[in-house]
Amino acid sequence: MVAALLLAGLYKRAASLYSPLSRDLRRLDSLNRSPLYATFSEAIAGIQTIRAYGTSGAMMEKMTKIVSDMYLVTLILLKRSVH
Q1: How many domains does the structure of the chain reveal?
Q2: Residue 18 within any structural domain of the chain
Q3: pTM, entire model
Q4: CA angle, residues 59, 71, 23, in degrees to nearest 5
Q5: Domain that holds residue 38
Q6: 9: which residues sit within 8 A by CB, 6+ positions away?
């Protein structure tokens, strides 16, 4: 019975530490993905203009850089969480 109470206390403590951290990480992940969603929305809205001016290559490069940066941040976060 004492062990169960001790484990319940440890679980509650771990949950109280994990919950705010998890919320912050989800917020940071959302902020990290925001430029990609914005650029994609702009590309969809302006696809006729992009095609008319022949800048699809530049738009693809911009989106590729955003995705690369996004995954770089994700990899850094994953690497830090392992240690």
Answers
A1: 1
A2: no
A3: 0.60
A4: 115
A5: 24-82
A6: none
